[in-house]
Amino acid sequence: MTPDLLEQGARRIEQRMAAMAKASPDTESGGRNASTGRIAKPEGVVDLTHGRILYLEDVSVSFDGFKAINKLSLDIAPGELRCIIGPNGAGKTTMMDIITGKTRPDEGRVYFGSTIDLLRYKEAEIAQMGIGRKFQKPTVFEQLTVFENLELALKTNKGVKSSMFFRLDSAQSDRLSETLITIQLADSVGRLAGTLSHGQKQWLEIGMLLMQDPKLLLLDEPVAGMTDEETDRTAELFLTLKGKHSLLVVEHDMNFIRSISDIVTVLCDGSVLAQGTLDKVQADERVIEVYLGR
Ligand SMILES: Nc1ncnc2c1ncn2[C@@H]1O[C@H](COP(=O)(O)OP(=O)(O)O)[C@@H](O)[C@H]1O
Ligand SMILES: [Mg+2]
Q1: What is the pLDDT of residues 118-170, one digit of tens each?
Q2: Cα separation of 17 and 27, whole Å?
Q3: Which residues in the chain land under pLDDT 70?
Q4: In this structure, which ligand is nearest to the CA of 290?
Q5: Ligand 1 in contact with 93 (CB < 6 A)?
Q6: What is the value of pTM for the model shown?
Q7: Residue 102 in contact with ligand 1 by CB distance below 6 A
Q8: Does the C-beta of 92 come closer than 6 Å to ligand 1?
Q9: Closest residue by Cα to residue 111 from 150, 59, 65, 66
Q10: In angstroms, what is the span from residue 95 Cα to ligand 2's centroid?
Q11: Residues ≥6 apart with Cβ < 8 Å to 172
Q12: Burial of 242 (0-12, 13-18, 19+ CB in 10 A)
């Protein structure tokens, strides 16, 4: 390689790193930092013998005396697509902050499978274990192509040096091709992410999560700001992900919820108010009350 090409390559990597630093997502509920986790090697295998991939029991967290999460208990089965609804301020984003290690609860238990106590791990370790999170706003790297964004998703938290010598192996390359098809961006592989529509950016970010082959995906208001057509395509996408991954989806769009949901959990004042099919929870007097403010 000529020195010129090397220099160009190095500059490109620098730009990528700068883009990564700029786009690093922050908590949306402004949650308290959980930095006291034990340093540990995350286990590769999630124990599903009790039929649940995620388990929260009596979880509470207060911010300045205000109970944002109040004795919250919830469990999610492997491959399940669970929808979470609830009024603003119900604690939905804070719940995701707790699962992902961004916020540490004051009390309660949070387990990934039957054996992994998530409260003992740091945010980065939890992500590595296979819990992927999609924040509300798209955080793709606008000045990189669709392909480069997906490729970059495989090498987060690695240094500049390892990025320079990074090559996709054949399994990764296959996953990238599959992901492009899943997120319906195969025709846009060379486009800069900045030129995509809002919906396409959201799909690309979901694709970036899929590159890490997550066992559990947490999605916070994924169809906010999407057109009706984009919303329908997102519903299709989630239905194809169901079964292969477990999904926890927070959304306000009831048509969207109706098209994807099995069990819906209604969160209010930091705990579960109702749970069941959408028809069942929508007919629940207490749910009607919190939504209509009667
Ligand atoms: N870091 C924080 N400090 C103080 N209050 C917070 C913090 N994070 C969240 N809250 C409060 O906790 C409640 C739940 O917030 P959030 O989880 O964002 O609700 P949702 O996502 O359901 O709209 C809100 O009343 C919010 O103002
Ligand atoms: Mg929220």
Answers
A1: 999 999 999 999 999 998 788 899 999 999 999 999 875 455 555 556 678 88
A2: 21
A3: 1-44, 156-166, 292-294
A4: 1
A5: yes
A6: 0.84
A7: no
A8: yes
A9: 59
A10: 9
A11: 154, 211
A12: middle
Q: At 118, which amino acid appears?
A: L
Tokens of 86: 């609830």
Tell me the pLDDT tens digit for each residue of 75-106. Answer: 999 999 999 999 999 999 999 999 999 999 99
What is the residue range of 166's domain?
Answer: 3-292
The Cα 195–Cα 64 span in angstroms is 42
Domain holding 240: CATH number?
3.40.50.300
- Contacts of 172-178 with C-beta under 8 Å, sequence gap 24+, read 172/211, 175/210, 175/211, 175/213, 176/147, 176/150, 176/151, 176/211
Of 125, 78, 137, 83, the C-alpha closest to 100 is: 125
Amino acid in the structure at residue 121:
Y
Report which residue type is found at 80. Answer: E
CA of 215 to the centre of ligand 2 (A): 22
User: Alpha-carbon distance 39 to 106, whole Å?
Assistant: 20
Number of structural domains in the chain? 1
